[in-house]
Amino acid sequence: MGSAKRITPAKIASAIALAWLASSFLYPIYVEVGGSVVKLNGSPELYLIPAFAVWRLRTERDAYQRLRVKVMVGLFFLYWVFIPIFYPRMPLLDGTEAEFTLAVHMVGALPFLILFIMVALVGKRADCGWNCPCVFSRETVGFAFRDATLKGDFWWRWRHLKWLPFAVVWAYFVYMLVDPVHAYERFGRTMYDLILIGYYASFLIIPFTGHRSFCRWACPWAATWGVLNVAGFYKIKADVGRCRECGLCEQNCDMGVPVRRLIREKGVLRTTECMGCGRCVNVCPQGVLSIHDIRDTIRGYNLGSRERLVRMAGGLTVAGLIFLDPGAPWGYLGLAFFATGLFGFCPTYLAVGVVARKARGIFFRQ
What PANTHER family does the database record attribute to this sequence (predicted)? Predict the structure, then answer.
C-alpha cells in the first residue's frame, strides 16, 4: 500500500481542519453568545495556520523548508493580521474599496500592483511560494496530504485549465478600464464569488489530489504570476552535465513539473508552474540546479542577496503609502529603500564604512 493511502493521525487532523476551513465560506455556522450572533467558523486560518505550522516545524527535516515555513508564518501575521489593522481597506481602480486581505488578489488594487512588481523581479515565490494566503493554508493545514500529489504527463497537461479563469479575470480588468462605475456590480462581484467558492471547495479535494491542486489547475493568479515567471527575471539554471537522472527533483516537486525533461531540452527551468519553493534545488545531490532572479542580473555593490530581497519587499510595501497618504514621508522613504534593494547599493552603508575606516586610522594609528 502506497504512503498516499496510509491513514495517519496527522492526516485525520488535517482532513478535519480542511473541512472546517471550507465550511467558513461554504457553510457558515452562526451561534448566539451573550445576546450577540457570532460566526462560529469565522476566520479559522488565524488559529489553524499557526497550529499546523508548529507541526510542520517539528516534523520538517530540511533546513531550507523550515526557514520557508518560519518566513511564511511571519509574513502571514505581517500581511494578513497586522497591516489590515492599520489599513483594513484598499482603494481599487474603479473608485471602490475592498478589504486588504481580498484586495491583494484583486486586479486594479494597490497590493496587487505591489505583488505584480515583486513577482516580475523574483518570480512566483513572492506570492505562490512564500506569501499567499492560499499557500499558508496548504503548506501547513493541507501539508499532510503532500504525498497524494498527482503527477505524470496526464496531470501535467491539466495545468492549462487555469488559463480559463486567467482570461476571465483579465477580461474583467479591461472591463474596469472601459466602465469602472458599473464593472464590479455587473461582473466583478459574481466573478470573485465564484473564484472564492472554487478556492474553498478545493480544500475538500486535497486528500485526493495533493495540497497544491488549486494552484496547479484553477488559480487565475498562479497563471498571472506564471506569465511573469517566464517574462521576468526568475529562472532555475541547470548544469546539465552534472545531472545523474536520479529523479529526486521531480519526486519533490509539488507542482508536478517534469524537471528532468525541461532541463534536458532547454538547460534551464523557466516555466509558468514553478512556485520557487526551492525543493528541487536543495534536494539535488549533485547541485545541478540554482535559482536566479533580478539580483543576479543587477549585481549588488554593498548589500547581500537576502538583505536586498527584504529591502525590495519591505520598501515596496511601505512605498504604497504614497497612494494611501501622499502627505506622509514614509512612502517616499519606502521607495528609496526599495531602490537600494533593487540595485544592491546603500549609500548610508558606504558613508558609515568611510567614517569607520577614518576613525580606525585616527584612534588606532601606529
Answer: FERREDOXIN-TYPE PROTEIN NAPH
